[in-house]
From TrEMBL:
One of its GO terms (biological process) is valyl-tRNA aminoacylation. A motif ('HIGH' region) lies at residues 47-57. This is Valine--tRNA ligase. Residues 880-893 have a biased composition (Basic and acidic residues). GO terms for cellular component: cytosol. GO terms for molecular function: aminoacyl-tRNA deacylase activity; ATP binding; valine-tRNA ligase activity. The gene is valS. Residues 869-893 are annotated as: Disordered. The C-terminal coiled-coil domain is crucial for aminoacylation activity. ValRS has two distinct active sites: one for aminoacylation and one for editing. The misactivated threonine is translocated from the active site to the editing site. NCBIfam families: PRK05729.1 (NF004349), valS (TIGR00422).
Length: 893
């Protein structure tokens, strides 16, 4: 289709795919690492390769896209690096579930075959999320798409691992770790979700071995008693001074275990005697090390009781609990059972209850790395926005523990460590060795474990740019400009990128971290499948178009506050998309064949022109300031307000006489300003509404190529004209007040009325007179007479209002039939009274108030309030009509 021609309606379904293909083909997303322009770069938080686009992604990527598109318009060389994360446990679980449907487990396939299967799965389904991001309009440099397990990134992982090992920052050690018996892997502390759950506290009798009495211990997990190796008491607890150093007999197992004393014991809890199970509790493990206690593992890695559990071996951990309790009771060892709330940890992936377990794992020594990560935020090299997240960041890093990075799964980066069967030494190397590094023996086997997924994503900002090579990308684009992320991965990911970036690149990975909020439903509830309140971005894009979805998310992206989203809101902003389309269509029809000026005249004359240019300049500044400071909602709102309520509602209406008139000079000025403002508004809207703005841009006169290559409108401060803005305020005020009176008095929109303006000053009088034509047209007047106050008299039978110093009167005698208007109002009032009394009856009904859901009651309350206000307004209006009728009767008589 040619320039200047637009179909009646915007068919986003046809436009979006075509436009996106056009961008990709014309290389608009590609970053040039040799460019002389200043650099702006972002790395995408890589979605899981198993991912499906949800509202969180939609918000996160819309905001990133806005920044990238904005910076391109501002003349930056922009690199947005996309990619996906191999998502270790998540992806492995997906493929395991598929196998389970065929009755197979990963062990049936064996490691190699299983990993092959995961790769097959990745090739087939792994691209979904990327397609969905394209659908959303993301302007990533797809030529640089990376995957955390592709060759380059895998090599970076190995190099980092080996370096950290050589520096003593990675070690292998026995530690208590959180273990998921379902996923059969270790979990990092933050991968465990704690939850307060009702449980039981079992009080168990442990007889002293010498028969001199007994100790009673309390536990929430009686099955772990099978692994007890001591009972601990406080050294100053007077109840137990005599028993320290003696032995007790462990019931059911008939094992002698010592009573030890340690100040760690809380005298107030239970009986003050604590059973110690170093194999299955973090604190007990530490006590065990301190007191040199044996460690007995009674629960296996699969959650089944081990041989060490004696008669209970082979039982599931929960089955075992039941049996232990029953046996204790039968043996007379159970004193009592209390109800007890306690914290239970769950696997963040599969929700199984995690098991503290001692195990030989690989750890990153995080403290030295964390110090530097804190310093960089303290000294401002990296800024966290909003600032309140800094506190969380520091708190976490101050209390950081060593990071357990080994995972007992198969999908991921296999740890580059080899064990020697002959000398027992470990060889850690970037290239697969064929001999032991210590003794040269060829009998070496590689570590079975893989690395935590977050290990590779911690390297993302530099590994994606070709590290360890010194690439031109790294020179140009590292540190990246900003990271846009949700707060849920502030520790998992952001803090670790800081640590790794500072250690390996000697510089922070990003200048800013912008932390956005969650997308919730309209009531502020978290979206979840079980609540049925999930809004699917793909369905929303199908129904309302991508631009409407993006604009809605942006308009509600207030810093530090959650985005409350509803389908109605998206539908609402679709009207805005249509408004932009329709307004552009109108402008195009009015400039067809016109010779638009390159420059707007320095003094465009007419108030409307000076006003819109001044307002436009302010909006340019507002938009810049909002985007530079991540106030996304302000960016969206100020353009919405300006375009709809100033440019469309007022400006285009006001210049109609010029556009349709015979003065060629006035016409071309109006055409030029209308087009230039529109063109620049489209440019400013482009970052949030990329599709419709591109489509319209290409139809506007005087444009070339893609809107992505346009220039962000420069600030022309001399166009700011506060005099014009104040004058226009007054003119709009006069028109607005006449429109109000027309509405209140129920005057037919078609009827022309007469109005009078009585001005306080000559200046005001001059201003209203100069804009008489505008007021007459926009307020639908028959005639307007303007006079100074005191010189003209207040008209009879008129409804009035005051706008700053101007008294405005609308003459009513010709247009209003007082009798029928009074009757109409009475009818309306009666109807409202009836409705209100029904609602009030409901609200005074106890039954309704107690039984109906709170939301329903609230709705009813709001309704009553609304009706009350409306009724009040109608009554006031009736009174006014009565007074006018009275006046009319008085003057007639
Ligand atoms: Zn799990
Ligand atoms: Zn060896």
């Amino acid at each position: 289709m040619n320039k200047g021609q637009l179909p009646k309606a915007y068919e986003f379904r046809d436009v979006e795919a075509r436009i996106y293909a056009f961008w990709e083909e014309s290389g608009c997303f590609r970053a040039d690492e040799n460019s002389k322009k200043p650099a702006f770069s972002i790395v995408i938080p890589p979605p899981n390769v198993t991912g499906q686009l949800h509202m969180g992604h939609a918000l996160n990527n819309t905001l990133q896209d806005i920044l990238c598109r904005y910076k391109r318009l501002k003349g930056f060389e922009v690199l947005w690096v996309p990619g996906t994360d191999h998502a270790g446990i998540a992806t492995q679980n997906v493929v395991e579930r598929q196998l389970a449907q065929q009755g197979l487990s990963r062990y049936d396939l064996g490691r190699e075959k299983f990993v092959e299967k995961v790769w097959e799965w990745k090739e087939e389904y792994g691209g979904y999320i990327i397609k969905q991001l394209k659908r959303l309009g993301a302007s990533c440099d797809w030529s640089r798409e990376r995957f955390t397990m592709d060759e380059g990134l895998s090599r970076a992982v190995r190099i980092v691992f080996v370096k950290l090992y050589e520096e003593g920052l990675i070690y292998r050690g026995t530690r208590m770790i959180n273990w998921c018996p379902r996923c059969r892997t270790a979990l990092a502390n933050i991968e465990v979700e704690g939850e307060e759950l009702p449980g039981r506290l079992y009080h168990i009798r442990y007889p002293l071995a010498d028969g001199s009495g007994e100790l009673v211990v309390a536990t929430t997990r009686p099955e772990t008693m099978l692994g007890d190796t001591a009972v601990a008491v406080h050294p100053e607890d007077p109840r137990y001074l005599e028993v320290v150093g003696k032995d007790v007999i462990l019931p059911l197992m008939d094992r002698r275990i010592p009573v030890i004393a340690d100040t760690y014991v809380d005298r107030e809890f239970g009986t003050g005697a604590l059973k110690v199970t170093p194999g299955h509790d973090f604190n007990d493990f530490d006590l065990g090390v301190k007191h040199n206690l044996a460690l007995i593992q009674v629960i296996g890695e699969d959650g089944v009781m081990t041989e060490a559990a004696g008669p209970y071996a082979g039982l599931d951990r929960y089955e075992c609990r039941k049996r232990v309790v029953a046996d204790l009771e039968a043996g007379g060892y159970l004193v009592k059972i209390d109800d007890h709330l306690h914290r239970v940890g769950h696997c963040y992936r599969c929700k199984s209850v995690v098991e503290p377990m001692q195990s030989l794992q690989w750890f990153v020594r995080t403290q030295p790395l964390a110090e530097k990560a804190m310093e960089a935020v303290r000294d401002g090299r990296t800024r966290i926005v909003p600032e309140k997240w800094e506190k969380d960041y520091f708190q976490w890093l101050e209390n950081i523990e060593d990071w357990c990075v080994s995972r007992q799964i198969w999908w991921g980066h296999r740890i580059p460590a080899w064990y020697c069967a002959d000398c027992g030494e470990v060889t850690v190397a970037v290239e697969d060795p064929d001999r032991c590094g210590s003794c040269g023996s060829p009998h070496i086997t590689q570590e079975e474990d893989v690395l935590d997924t977050w290990f590779s994503s911690a390297l993302w900002p530099f590994s994606t740019m070709g590290w360890p090579e010194k690439t031109p990308e790294l020179t140009k684009f590292y540190p990246t400009s900003v990271l846009v992320t949700g707060f849920d991965i502030l520790f998992f990911w952001v803090a670790r990128m800081m640590m790794m970036g500072l250690h390996f690149m000697k510089d922070v990975p990003f200048r800013d971290v912008y932390v956005h909020a969650l997308v919730r439903d309209a009531q502020g509830q978290k979206m979840s499948k079980s609540k049925g309140n999930v809004i699917d971005p793909l369905i929303m894009m199908d129904q309302y178009g991508t631009d409407a979805l993006r604009f809605t998310l942006t308009a509600f992206a207030v810093q530090g506050r959650d985005v409350k989203l509803s389908e109605e809101r998206i539908e609402g902003y679709r009207h805005f998309v249509n408004k932009i389309w329709n307004a552009t269509r109108l402008v195009l029809m009015n400039v067809e064949g016109a010779r638009i000026l390159d420059e707007i005249p320095e003094d465009p004359g007419r108030l409307a022109h000076r006003w819109i240019l001044s307002r436009f300049q302010k909006v340019v500044q507002e938009v810049e300031e909002a985007l530079e400071n991540y106030h996304f909602n302000q960016y969206a709102q100020s353009l919405y307000q300006f375009f709809w309520h100033e440019y469309c509602d007022w400006y285009l209406e006001m210049i109609k006489p010029d556009l349709y008139g015979d003065d060629p000079q006035a016409k071309v000025v109006a055409q030029t300003i209308a087009v230039q403002v529109l063109r620049n508004v489209l440019v400013m809207l482009h970052p949030v509404m990329p599709f419709v703005t591109e489509e319209l841009w290409q139809k506007l006169p005087g444009t070339e190529g893609s809107i992505m290559q346009a220039e962000f409108p420069p600030v022309d401060k001399y166009r700011i004209d506060s005099g014009a803005e104040a004058d226009m305020e007054l003119v709009m005020g006069v028109i607005g007040s006449i429109r109000n009176i027309r509405g209140e008095m129920n005057i037919s929109p078609a009827a022309r009325v007469n109005a009078v303006c009585l001005c306080a000053t000559e200046t005001e009088k001059g201003l209203v007179e100069a804009n008489e034509r505008t007021v007459v047209d926009l307020a639908r007047l028959e005639g307007l007479s303007v006079a100074l106050q005191g010189q003209g008299s207040k008209p009879r039978l008129a409804a009035g209002a005051v706008v700053s110093g101007v008294e405005v009167y609308v003459l009513l005698d010709d247009v209003l039939d007082f009798e029928s208007e009074a009757a109409r109002l009475q009818k309306e009032i009666t109807k409202l009274e009836k409705e209100l009394s029904i609602t009030n009856r409901k609200l005074s009904n106890e039954d309704f108030l107690t039984r109906a859901p709170a939301q329903v009651v609230e709705k009813e309350r709001e309704k009553a309030e609304r009706l009350g206000e409306k009724l009040e307004k109608m009554r006031r209006h009736r009174q006014r009509i009565e007074e006018l009728r009275h006046d009319a009767a008085g003057s007639a008589g």
